[in-house]
Structure prediction request, 683 residues.
Amino acid sequence: MKILLIEDDSETSGHVSHALTAAGHDVERAADGRLALSRALSGEYAALIMDRMLPGLDGLSVTKQLRAQGNETPILLITTMTGIDDRVEGLEGGADDYLVKPFAFAELLARVHAMVRRADISERAAVTRLVIADLQMDLIARTVHRGGEAIDLQAQEFRLLEYLVRNTGRAVTRSMLLEHVWKLNFDPRTNIVETHVSRLRSKLARGHAPELIHTIRGTGYIFRAD
Amino acid sequence: MRIRLLHTEGFRVTAIFVAIFAASAAALAVSVLVITDVAFRDQIVQFANADIAAVRDGYNTEGVEEAREVIGQRMAEPGASDFFLLQRNGIRLAGNLAPMPPRTGILTVPGARPRHAILGVAAMLAPGLYVFSGSDLYRANLARRQILRTLIWIFAAALVLATIAGSLVSRSFLGRTDMIAQTCRAIMNGDLKTRIPVRGTQDELDRLSQTINAMLDRIAALMENVRQVTNDIAHDLRTPVTHLRHRLERARGQAAPADYDKALEAAILASDDILALFAALLRIAQIEGGARRAGFAPVDLAELLRQLRDMLGPVADDAQHRLVLLVPQSTVIRGDRELLVQLFSNLIENAIVHTPEGTRIVVDLKEEKDSAIVSISDNGPGVPQEEHEKLFRRFYRQEASRTRPGYGLGLSLAAAITELHGGRHSHHYRPPPRFVGAGILCLVAKKLTVGTPQMTP
Prediction:
């Protein structure tokens, strides 16, 4: 897909652009906020990846102006590791996701993919049931069945599974899970994600094949039925 | 100093006072002189009028001879006028003055010597017959000069005294402001221990000096903290960076692509660790700055701890620990939810990571008066008493945990978050029998509403 990368540091911009291109995306680069705004208004991009601090017009202002003019292109804001409140401010300003420097490229790719999927109109419609292979999730009754057999899940296990299923076929990182399932915006020292994923896995696997939750080493997990 | 003195506030005040004093002294002198002069002249005229009345009396009853007689008597009497004259058609009939042009009323005539003018009263007894009585003004002039001289001396002495006093006052003021300036210069030059001497008189300068000293103490404490942290960072960062360097050096010598990949992977992880360390330091600094207090909102601590139990309970189980929660139904405080989650998850994780298998971790939320108290304790081996204070320092790690991952920032962060919420933190041994191990006690903020204390195991 076509991505506009707005970053004034040419080295960072080069690295990120290289990673995105390697993942098969068509990347255009801009280094100035004002210029980025006028190009983003064309609406030809599937996603914007934008640094918070930019010459001309800062990333948050660009985001706000785009949203004010009805442009709904998914935006991922990137910031240096300072203020904690920046995140809330960025999301309230209309950004779809927020990533703190430094980040792994796998993290960036996973977040861009998830963000673009969420923005798809077809996906936004209210879903009450999720069905993947022999797994069925009823989002209203909060029940899960596999092969017709009920699986008893705790609330957080249900949220974890829902997030994985909604991102079927796409990698989700540990930090994405911490953010969406547990609302944690910092990295805990213990294996919260690993522990809960492993419990969920064993509950889903009891007497059933194949494995649905796959580990991507060094990155996170992917839900896949193949 | 001599020139600067002219520019001091003390000197200016002195000069203004001297000027006001001089002006009022001059006004006083002028009025004293005028009043005494008028009094002298009045007295002379009164004597003269009495003399003339007596002479007129004599002339009216017994004629010119009696008038001459009266003048003769009066001249010999003490307390009467100095000079008399009785003249007819320009010829002196009696008295001790030369004939003068015929005039009446109060008049001044030249005396025998300069400065000895005569003030007196002249009257007509009959056509061509005039009488005059008056006194020498010399005595009045003398008194006036005497008074004037005295006043000038007093004036001069006061002027000198006022100037000296003013200079002394401003010199002492200057001395003390100089001392303040000197102290500030010494501090600018790097001697942070210098303080302004305080006299103990509690005057304005003393209070100013005390305030400046208190400010300097605070700055010194902050600088000490910064210095400590900088040292710690420089020291503690060397280890991970050195490890990273070693890994890369080893990788350079390896030929097999698989080994190469492994070494690179390890190097990336090592640099992530270093970046995480910086992130943690920045977070602590930000929390200690207090800026986050602006975003405080009501938070239900009981609910928050239950969520943490659900989140961390399985982790504790996997590590062969037991996580026990003792919380009331609801305890609401004002705080930052995200930071509170980080605080308690940090402390629970600490207990999971640093205690042996089979340890029980108890999270206890109590309400006491208007406070909500959360304590996290375990029945592990505990931390020796002498290390308690150090636990909350940045980068402090117990000997035993040096080999485990981490940088010793967890408790510093916990302390910063607790303080942000107006709480106190401490580490202490819990008395037996229930818990023989150690506990981290956190006092967190004032509660907003009273919850029903219902224990949920």
Observations:
- The first strand of chain A starts at residue 2 and ends at 6.
- The two ends of chain A are 25 Å apart (CA to CA).
- DSSP finds nine helices and twelve strands in chain A.
- The domain at 126-223 of chain A is CATH 1.10.10.10 (Arc Repressor Mutant, subunit A).
